[in-house]
Amino acid sequence: MHPFEYVRPGDVAAAVALVSADPKAEYLAGGTTELDLVLKDGVLEPDRLVDITRLPLRGITRAENTLRVGALVTMNELAADPTVSERLPFVREALLAGASPQLRNMATIGGNLLQRTRCRYFRDTTVPACNKRSPGSGCAAARGPARMHAILGASDHCIALHASDLCVPLVALDTVVDIQGVDGSRSVPLTQFYVLPGERPDIENVLQHGELITQIRIPLLPVGTRSGYLKVRDRASYEFALTSAATALLIEDGTIVRARLALGGVGTIPWRALEAEEILHGAPATGRTFRAAAQAALADPFTVAGTAFKVELAERTIVRILHTVSGVRP
Amino acid sequence: METTHFAGADIDLALRVNGCPRRLHLDSRVTLLDALREDLGLTGTKKGCDQGACGACTVLLDGKRVLSCLTLAAQCEGLDVTTIEGLAQDGQLHPVQEAFIRHDGFQCGYCTPGQIVSAVALLQEGRTGSDEEIREFMSGNLCRCGAYPNIVAAIREIAGRGSE
Predict the structure, then answer these.
(1) Nearest to B64 among A3, A53, A105 (CB)
(2) Domains along chain A?
(3) ipTM metric
(4) pTM score, whole prediction
(5) Which residues of chain A have a CB within 8 Å of the CB of B74?
């Protein structure tokens, strides 16, 4: 196991300076993915872990129609927030569908966004071909047994999945990510935060080395909007999604006047289904509309033998959550 | 707050374990699980998967259930850790421990410390409104012997819902 220095910085500026100055330094928050990949799998080999868990990035505050969530708020803390229950119910559903109660007490919101896009081949250092671990080495997953892998945003270069449940409703909501770097702060919409793997699957988001997520800002759903999150998986609980879908619908007199749809379990990034939203906007809330939206969302998949089933499963997941949330019977 | 640096093999740590102040001198890579078992001799907390998948290593950190296998000991500076050894008071088993015995909530027993610590937290969280809710909020603790029905029965009894 690779040795590392453990550092507990006194404030955000010190943390950012420490990691920015050292290419082999990484942040440590809840640790549920980071320590797994560092200590257990040996996939990541930082020389220095900068523990940010004591930094003052923990509050949840409501300002008008936005919820500001500190990066170190845990999944369970956010799920217990009354504004989330009242105005972002599908965020709460997604939080409680993820991981286990113990992990949700540890895992932070910033860490959830930044959990590595990963697969079994990435985690197994005895597998030579992994473009994410060793750029240019190939992708063993695209040629071997695959199931928990992506079909959207994927290619021969990489089919690893972004496994977050939480990010699915967050990306549907136009959440904004606030970032601190050595030279100042900036904000990036979550829809522009993640980078498709392309030929560089090792690059997963727009963060520069050392930049730190300090908070996210979640727009509350307009009053009257109904929302839901549906997760389909191999076990009833404590399991990653095979497919999932988050939707928020505002329906007036049988017409969909506002629709948001995002997918999990299928994308190399949390997947906003814009093509499906276009079909839903202004359309009658019917099973026919829902099926057309689902087909649009899955129009251009990249599948291998083990993931081909996910196209129909994802379509059915979308249709079902749209029925559930709209109240329109199948 | 000052920035604290520790060289890799040289962590000085003060924390409270089951109410007692403890001091440790550790490598930065040591998990809370290994510190408890190897350095403090508290072997009640079990190492199952050692990778955050089974829940056998569940402890309470400042009152909240967490996985000690995915927590660095160094991160616990100044915090309160409660393990299975800390649940009994004055020679009396914790009510959840007694209920597990009454309901035969284990077979081989390896996952049991984690199950019981997790159940203690679950009762504090109030997630015991139905058997379904108990199962969902105990899903982070696997039992390969399959003692789940009796585990649920033990928790149900302590939650005051009798035998449904």
Answers:
(1) A105
(2) 5-53 (3.30.43.10), 226-326 (3.30.390.50)
(3) 0.96
(4) 0.97
(5) 6, 8, 51
Domains observed in chain B: 11-86 (3.10.20.30), 95-158 (1.10.150.120)
Q: Which residue of A has its CA nearest to B66?
A: A102
Candidate from A1, A8, A76 with C-beta closest to B4: A8
Closest CA to B27 of B66, B73, B68, B70: B73
Is the dihedral angle over the CA atoms A240, A244, A248, A253 positive or is it negative? negative
B1 touches chain A (CB under 8 A): yes
Identity (one letter) of the amino acid at A219? P
Sheet holding A176-181, edge to edge: A60-63, A66-70, A212-219, A176-181, A184-189
DSSP lists the bridge partners of residue A219 as: A66
Note down pLDDT in tens along chain A; length 330 residues: 789 999 999 999 999 999 999 999 999 999 999 999 999 999 999 999 999 999 999 999 999 999 999 999 999 999 999 999 999 999 999 999 999 999 999 999 999 999 999 999 999 999 999 999 999 999 999 999 999 999 999 999 999 999 999 999 999 999 999 999 999 999 999 999 999 999 999 999 999 999 999 999 999 999 999 999 999 999 999 999 999 999 999 999 999 999 999 999 999 999 999 999 999 999 999 999 999 999 999 999 999 999 999 999 999 999 999 999 999 999
